[in-house]
């Protein structure tokens, strides 16, 4: 058993000290690209500044024959794109390494940390089963950071995509001060749970409830309502992250053409507490940026509640509704998020400022 005091000590001589708090950096869209795909790689430099996170994916969706090219491609892209990652600009650089039990996982970590560790903000680890996987990555990263002479720790993001990972979600979140957040991996999780779906995220028309019969007429017309397959899983993930001060994300929405259902799925996750999502195709970036930025009218309302609540205690009536300490806390979540996003997104700042000016007229 580790003492609480050991938790914030570096795990290797010469490694940077662990962070005590995970910085709240905007990460509405984590945009996946395959660094071994020349067309995708060519688009990366122009995406810097317009997407919060660019993630060089080395795991699933990269062909086995291209694994080494993807790893080297990511090194080359990081070196050739000076304002990407490592706090050099607004766009963070993440990677998703291959699974820890795969033939590539170890070399992914050793190569990337030693070659471009100063540019990598977060390493996403797939198929995390329990705290033991995070402990392994934690120590290895510390050794590699020391070797590379890095002065800030690389953070770790785990994908929840096995039933065991789900059962161990709280211990995964608390396994290391490097833990930055969790994403839902609905495709692998569905397979591991033996769910009877064949999609990458999103809903299913068969998962529904049907309205009760009228006057016992079970054959009569009875509306059905499609339900959210992922509600329980996302809510569990959000609670585990909130408890540990780290960030929850929805994962992939594989139907690239169905931009409407994609937006709905993202919005459900946003309302439940997620801070961002994955983007698999350039057209999903704008959807994620829109959904994971509070609407200007909600921000304006939140600001009015903050103002009306004065010292933050007691209860007031605003537009016929009671506001108190608890609604104030919700409004502060919105206002703080809006301020963080406005600081990096001038178009959004303009919208938030315009609605304040309008309200004060
Ligand atoms: C889904 C795709 C295979 C679609 O690619 P494509 O058929 O090429 O789409 P388009 O013709 O519409 O593309 C137009 C141009 O845009 C470029 N492009 C496409 N996607 C990207 C991208 N992600 N980043 C940058 N550029 C992109 C194309 O090359 C075209 O360029 P051009 O011809 O020059 O105009 C493809 O989008 C794709 O592979 N996306 C990433 C998929 C991925 O990363 N999957 C893994 C994450 S999901 C997962 O792993 C499941 C999860 O773990 C779980 O368990 O749930
Ligand atoms: Mg997966």
Automatic annotation (TrEMBL):
Q: List, in alphabetical order, the Gene Ontology terms for molecular function in this entry.
A: lyase activity; magnesium ion binding
Q: Which cofactor does it need?
A: Mg(2+)
HpcH/HpaI aldolase/citrate lyase domain ranges (all copies): 29-199
Q: Which Gene3D superfamilies match?
A: Phosphoenolpyruvate-binding domains (3.20.20.60)
Q: Which domain of life is it from?
A: Bacteria
Record: residues binding Mg(2+): 161, 188
> Matching PANTHER family, A to Z?
CITRATE LYASE SUBUNIT BETA, LYASE BETA SUBUNIT, PUTATIVE (AFU_ORTHOLOGUE AFUA_4G13030)-RELATED
Protein name listed in UniProt: Beta-methylmalyl-CoA/L-malyl-CoA lyase
Q: Which organism is it from?
A: Nocardioides aurantiacus
Q: Upper lineage ranks? A: Bacteria, Bacillati, Actinomycetota, Actinomycetes, Propionibacteriales
């Amino acid at each position: 058993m580790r003492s609480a005091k050991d938790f914030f000590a570096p795990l290797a001589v010469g490694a940077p000290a662990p962070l005590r708090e995970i910085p709240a950096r905007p990460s509405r869209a984590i945009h996946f690209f395959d660094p071994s795909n020349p067309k995708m790689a060519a688009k990366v430099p122009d995406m810097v500044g317009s997407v919060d996170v660019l993630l060089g994916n080395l795991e699933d969706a990269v062909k086995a024959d291209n694994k080494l090219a993807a790893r080297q491609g990511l090194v080359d892209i990081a070196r050739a794109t000076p304002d990407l990652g490592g706090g050099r600009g607004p766009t963070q650089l993440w990677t998703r390494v291959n699974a820890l039990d795969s033939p590539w996982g170890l070399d992914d970590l050793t190569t990337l940390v030693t070659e471009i560790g100063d540019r990598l903000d977060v390493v996403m680890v797939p198929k995390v089963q329990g705290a033991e996987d995070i402990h392994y990555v934690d120590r290895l990263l510390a050794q590699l950071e020391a070797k590379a002479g890095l002065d800030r720790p690389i953070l770790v993001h785990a994908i929840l995509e096995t039933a065991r990972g789900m059962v161990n979600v709280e211990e995964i979140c608390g396994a290391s001060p490097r833990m930055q957040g969790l994403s839902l991996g609905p495709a692998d999780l569905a397979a591991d749970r033996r769910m009877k779906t064949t999609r990458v995220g999103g809903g299913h028309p068969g998962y529904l409830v049907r309205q009760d019969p009228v006057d016992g007429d079970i054959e009569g017309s009875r509306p059905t309502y499609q339900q959210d397959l992922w509600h329980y899983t996302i809510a569990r993930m959000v609670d585990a992250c909130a408890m540990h001060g780290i960030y929850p994300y929805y994962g992939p929405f594989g139907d690239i053409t169905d931009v409407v259902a994609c937006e709905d799925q993202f919005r459900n996750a946003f309302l439940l507490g997620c801070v961002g999502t994955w983007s698999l195709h350039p057209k999903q970036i704008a959807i994620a940026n829109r959904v994971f930025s509070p609407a200007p009218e909600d921000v304006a309302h939140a600001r009015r509640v903050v103002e009306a609540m004065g010292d933050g205690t007691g209860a007031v009536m605003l537009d016929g509704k009671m506001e108190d300490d608890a609604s104030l806390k919700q409004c502060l979540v919105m206002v703080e998020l809006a301020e963080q996003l406005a600081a990096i997104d001038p178009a959004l700042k303009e919208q938030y400022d315009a609605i304040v000016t309008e309200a004060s007229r």
